[in-house]
Amino acid sequence: MRGERALGSVKVVNTRATADTAEKRVSVSNSSEIVAAGPQGGMGLDDHIYQRLLKERIIFLGSDVRDDNANAIAAQMLLLAAEDPEKDIWLYINSPGGSISAGMAIFDTMKWIPNDVATVAMGLAASMGQFLLSAGTKGKRYATPHARVMMHQPSGGIGGTASDIKIQAEQMLFVKTQMAELIAEHTGQTVEQIHRDSDRDRWFGAQEAKEYGFVDHVFERSDQAGQGNNPVSD
């Protein structure tokens, strides 16, 4: 038969693992592993880069905030916290924002773990990206010189029956108030000021973001931030 050959009275069948079941184990540290499964049974270049960064306790949010990448980021934080509950975790952000519920899952994980989470804005930190940036550990929130930060009120589509629209509007108002209160806590601004400034898109340069309270430092290089050590003052 094709794919088989006789060996005495025993048949030897050549088999290959299917792409659906192929897995590749990538070492993150001496004490843990992450299993990455893909359609080709391996990992692409981007996957290897992100795994290498994870080994250095760096997590990268480089897209809109969605359920899938929020779950991955939360899992990575839990993994790094389990490996070392005292060493800082670095969250780099270049994001236009996205799902509020997905972003809140990341935020709650940041608060759940015992580690300090240092946040770094590079490129763009808008909407939920801005929220996660300012939610980093006080004194360890950074922006690169040309990063842009944008804050606005939550938005979303409303439809359905009159009763549905009423419920959705109430929920949106609740989320707006909750987000304003949290951003006020993170920045030191009043809740009323946050409501006024987020009524429309409000843009900040890196230095303006520092003055407003979104970040604590504006640095050009990671060694200025003391990555892996205690942050230094600017």
Automatic annotation (TrEMBL):
InterPro entries, per database record: ClpP, ClpP/crotonase-like_dom_sf, ClpP/TepA, ClpP_His_AS
Subcellular location: Cytoplasm
GO CC annotation, single: cytoplasm
Catalytic residues (UniProt): 127 (nucleophile), 152
A GO BP annotation: protein quality control for misfolded or incompletely synthesized proteins
One GO MF term attached to the UniProt entry: ATP-dependent peptidase activity
Top-level division of the source organism's lineage: Bacteria
Reactions catalysed: Hydrolysis of proteins to small peptides in the presence of ATP and magnesium. alpha-casein is the usual test substrate. In the absence of ATP, only oligopeptides shorter than five residues are hydrolyzed (such as succinyl-Leu-Tyr-|-NHMec, and Leu-Tyr-Leu-|-Tyr-Trp, in which cleavage of the -Tyr-|-Leu- and -Tyr-|-Trp bonds also occurs)
Sorted UniProt keywords: Cytoplasm, Hydrolase, Protease, Serine protease
Documented EC number(s): 3.4.21.92
Top-level EC class: hydrolase
Main location group: cytoplasm
Coiled coil: none
Function: Cleaves peptides in various proteins in a process that requires ATP hydrolysis. Has a chymotrypsin-like activity. Plays a major role in the degradation of misfolded proteins.
Subunit structure: Fourteen ClpP subunits assemble into 2 heptameric rings which stack back to back to give a disk-like structure with a central cavity, resembling the structure of eukaryotic proteasomes.
Similarity remark: Belongs to the peptidase S14 family.
NCBIfam families: PRK00277.1 (NF001368), PRK12553.1 (NF009205)
Name assigned to this protein: ATP-dependent Clp protease proteolytic subunit
Organism: Janibacter indicus
Gene: clpP
